[in-house]
């Protein structure tokens, strides 16, 4: 903008864009930067109110009295002369906001001044509206440059949120706020302010989270009203119906309202009409329109509208797949829901779509309408997934006396045990399932399960569900042998249903990965058909096993691919907070493996805030917080995060023991207690060896080697069985550390780097540099370059293996070394620095010795690997 005013480009610039995109702010900021000693700025404020008055936009800049009895052309000449006289020797700058609203004479004045010069125009205009011909001619005739300002991108929004909230905002919240604002800077600002004033933004573990509440402040409502404009009663009814029922079929909307009003709403840009599969549907043109319309619609009218919609669809046969869910929700919201079967079927459909909040509402209504055990079982599953396990147990206990038949009693046992085990952290809930247990719990939810009435024996044809759930529990209790036996029995049972087989498969896959064969684990999971993965809790078990296999495999790239696949998209786009939290933990683990520790720390903190303190995944999130902080050398944060992890640990989360204890070991390292770190890792390695979890043991051996305590014999034995992608590089590194082999360390660094494991690559390269420099090996400079390259990928890392002693060169030695590396001969260097050639050669000999190189040809690489001169 300053180059335009200075005359370095053309005669001006016009910024176009939608309302609220930031045009006016850009204009104000640009004008404020102009030097008033050099430029005379005339501000024209075009508004709808001034369009009917000649030169109304320039009313504040021109004298109150204009010349009497002059023509329009005379007024133009008079106005131009006045403005030039005001400018004097300074350059004239016209700052015109909303140029599309200029009255005809003001538009002609702007065009004349821009064409005649030497005035410069800086202006804004709304895209997509009628513009005066005199204004349009400005860019058509190449008098000014027109620049379109695009809406904010998602990344732009995240950066602005971080600045506005003085801290990072979690990814899902940022994405939702971007969707609500549609990249409009003005609306985003109002959204942030309303959310902060209404306590809808909360901070947990240093990350801001939006609760999902949308308090409509007066200023936010005014901003939306301004975009919507004046609305007639028929159009308002169209908007209300779409606000509560979108997406709604066009034909249905026309039947329920006034067709002419629908056309007018589309013409004014209030609704969007477009194809969806084989029908035409209607949605609101902006998400915030719905929030304002819904807030102002009387409850009685809402109920009438939705009841009428439900009746219209039911009268046509409700043939579409989503009609069931939509009609049930409309019946619920209009207080006309009476059919428990309809509510239960809709609840199952919402559950299968991972719409947990919708499904929970429908499940509660189905139970209240007399849906019996089937409704209670489904509601309990939903409540447990939504971190309300105590309520889930109460719902199940309320129907305990209504159970009929062995199949219902078995399902009740599985549901009751699952809610207590994973939701309440009650490890003894497994007794409800164990075929060796014969007692029923009769105590309140959350209390220990001892004593009670005898259970009736489970029929052999119903054992598969019990064994599948118990197998998963045994796995989480750290009992892999029992878990594997039960899971294999389920898969061998021809009566086992697809969901039970999926749970058993997930259990075995997790064990295979932990035992050192993640590829087989992934193949096992990939073989599952999608039909058995419709229930979110089953899908969660399967995808948790897949994620664990990828992390144990040491494949950050594969984790990234997984996080962009179907389950990840569904979990994040839908209302599945538990699944989204797990995915964020996996993102953090992948970032840590890559050595991107600042990102890993932020993601782990985000996951800790997303997950309820009562869930096992929250333990893993805090362990990752501690691990990333420790690797960055932040002992205080690592200790704090480890304390949070220990505070939340439960016996039902022993499956996470390897990751937790590795994080604990690195927390000890950060605190300067390497001895306790090694003891922690030694205990963990022995535990993994006893349990046959060679995959986890491999990563523990890697950590031991990184801390200078390699176990090469054990690594050699594991190499015969562990097939993880990163395993060959790990075993190569362990052997190289044990042997003090610089060339082998360099090879391990290259192998780690090829896998994207940049922190491990940097540590291996650091070890290679230390050894090779001591031996003055010719490979030392190349190893130092590998170190520099890997460190650039993990700049925040602060681990013991990276603490190498760099050679110190004097300022004069650096001068001479740089010149020599550039190919300058000793004699020329001596002349340039006023030294003798012999002195130059003596300096070079000392440089060679310090850097561990054998001549000039290796100087350049060695110098690039040195830290910068202070």
Question: In words, what does this structure look like?
Answer:
With 870 residues, the protein is α/β, with parallel strands linked by helices. Among the domains are: 2-148, Rossmann fold; 154-215, no CATH class; 463-546; 554-663, Alpha Horseshoe (Serine Threonine Protein Phosphatase 5, Tetratricopeptide repeat), CATH 1.25.40; 811-864, Winged helix-like DNA-binding domain superfamily/Winged helix DNA-binding domain (Arc Repressor Mutant, subunit A), CATH 1.10.10.10. The chain contains 43 helices and ten strands. The strands form three sheets. Strands 2-3-4-1-5 form a five-stranded parallel sheet, sandwiched between helices. A three-stranded antiparallel sheet has the order 8-10-9. Helix 4 (104-116) runs parallel beside helix 5 (133-140), helix 16 (340-352) runs antiparallel to helix 17 and helix 37 (742-754) packs antiparallel against helix 38. It is flat and about 105 Å long. The chain starts with a helix and ends in a 6-residue tail after the last helix. This is LuxR family transcriptional regulator. It comes from Virgisporangium aliadipatigenens. Pfam families: GerE.
């Amino acid at each position: 903008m300053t180059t335009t005013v200075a005359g370095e480009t053309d005669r001006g610039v016009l910024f176009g864009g939608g309302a609220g995109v930031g045009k006016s702010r850009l204009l104000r900021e640009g004008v404020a930067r102009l030097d008033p000693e050099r430029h005379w700025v005339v501000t024209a404020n075009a508004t709808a109110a001034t369009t009917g008055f000649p030169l109304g936009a320039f009313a504040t800049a021109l004298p109150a009295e204009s010349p009497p009895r002059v023509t329009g052309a005379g007024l133009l000449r008079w106005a131009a002369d006045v403005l030039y006289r005001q400018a004097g020797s300074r350059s004239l700058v016209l700052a015109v906001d909303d140029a599309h609203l200029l009255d005809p004479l003001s538009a002609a004045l702007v065009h004349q001044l821009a064409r005649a010069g030497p005035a410069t125009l800086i202006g804004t205009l709304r895209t997509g509206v009628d513009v005066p011909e005199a204004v349009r001619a400005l860019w058509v005739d190449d008098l000014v440059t027109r620049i379109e300002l695009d809406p904010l991108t998602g990344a732009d929004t995240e950066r602005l949120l971080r600045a506005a909230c003085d801290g990072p905002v979690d990814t899902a919240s940022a994405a939702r706020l971007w969707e609500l604002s549609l990249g409009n800077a003005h609306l985003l600002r109002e959204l942030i302010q309303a959310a902060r004033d209404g306590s809808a933004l909360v901070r947990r573990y240093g990350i801001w989270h939006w609760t999902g509440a949308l308090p409509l402040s007066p200023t936010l409502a005014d901003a939306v009203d301004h975009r919507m404009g004046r609305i007639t009663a028929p159009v308002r009814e169209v908007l209300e119906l779409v606000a509560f029922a979108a997406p709604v079929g066009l034909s249905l909307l026309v039947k329920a309202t006034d067709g002419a009003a629908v056309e007018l709403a589309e013409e004014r840009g209030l609704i969007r009409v477009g194809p969806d599969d084989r029908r035409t549907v209607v949605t609101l043109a902006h998400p915030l329109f719905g929030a304002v319309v819904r807030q102002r619609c009387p409850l009685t009218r809402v109920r009438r509208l939705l009841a009428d919609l439900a009746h219209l669809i039911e009268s046509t046969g409700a043939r579409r797949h989503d009609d069931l869910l939509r009609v049930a929700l409309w019946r619920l919201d209009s207080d006309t829901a009476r059919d428990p079967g309809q509510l239960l079927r809709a609840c199952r459909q919402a559950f299968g779509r991972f719409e947990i909040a919708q499904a929970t509402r429908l499940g509660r209504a189905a139970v209240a309408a007399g849906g019996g055990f089937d409704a209670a079982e489904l509601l309990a599953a939903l409540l447990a997934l939504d971190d309300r396990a105590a309520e889930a147990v109460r719902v199940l206990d309320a129907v305990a006396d209504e159970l009929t038949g062995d199949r219902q009693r078995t399902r009740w046992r599985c549901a009751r045990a699952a809610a207590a085990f994973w939701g309440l952290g009650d490890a003894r809930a497994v007794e409800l399932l164990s075929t060796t247990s014969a007692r029923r719990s009769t105590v309140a939810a959350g209390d220990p399960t001892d004593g009670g009435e005898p259970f009736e024996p489970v029929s052999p044809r119903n054992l598969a569900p019990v064994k599948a759930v118990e197998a998963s529990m045994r796995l989480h209790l750290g009992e892999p042998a029992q878990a594997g036996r039960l899971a294999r029995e389920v898969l061998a049972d021809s009566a086992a249903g697809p969901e039970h087989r999926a749970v058993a498969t997930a259990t075995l896959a997790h064990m295979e990965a932990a035992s050192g064969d993640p590829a087989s684990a992934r193949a096992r999971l990939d073989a599952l058909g999608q039909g058995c993965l419709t229930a979110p809790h089953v899908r969660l078990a399967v995808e948790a096993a897949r994620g664990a296999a990828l992390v144990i495999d040491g494949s950050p790239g594969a984790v990234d691919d997984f996080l962009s696949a179907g389950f990840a998209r569904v979990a994040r786009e839908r209302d599945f907070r538990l699944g989204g939290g797990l995915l964020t933990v996996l993102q953090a683990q992948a970032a840590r493996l890559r050595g991107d520790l600042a990102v890993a720390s932020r993601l782990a903190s985000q996951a800790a805030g997303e997950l309820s303190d009562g869930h096992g995944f929250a333990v893993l999130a805090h362990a990752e917080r501690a691990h990333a902080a420790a690797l960055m050398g932040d002992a205080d944060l690592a200790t704090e995060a480890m304390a949070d992890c220990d505070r939340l640990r439960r016996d039902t989360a022993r499956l996470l023991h390897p990751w937790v204890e590795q994080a604990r070991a690195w927390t000890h390292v950060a605190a300067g207690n390497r001895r306790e770190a090694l003891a922690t890792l030694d205990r963990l390695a022995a535990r993994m060896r006893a349990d046959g979890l060679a995959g986890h043991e491999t990563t523990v051996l890697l950590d031991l080697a990184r801390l200078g305590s390699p176990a090469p014999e054990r690594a050699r034995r594991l190499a015969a069985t562990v097939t993880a992608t990163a395993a060959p590089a790990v075993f190569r590194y362990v052997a190289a550390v044990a042997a003090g082999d610089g060339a082998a360390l360099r090879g391990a660094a290259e192998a780690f780097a090829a896998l994207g494991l940049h922190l491990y690559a940097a540590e291996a390269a650091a070890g290679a540099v230390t050894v090779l420099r001591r031996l003055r090996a010719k490979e030392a400079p190349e190893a130092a370059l590998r170190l520099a390259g890997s460190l650039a990928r993990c700049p925040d890392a602060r681990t013991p293996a990276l603490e190498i002693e760099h050679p110190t060169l004097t300022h004069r030695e650096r001068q001479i070394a740089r010149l020599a590396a550039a190919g300058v001969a000793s004699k020329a260097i001596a002349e340039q620095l006023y030294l003798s050639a012999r002195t130059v050669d003596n300096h070079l000999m000392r440089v060679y010795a310090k850097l561990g190189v054998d001549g000039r040809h290796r100087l350049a690489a060695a110098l690039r690997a040195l830290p910068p001169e202070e």
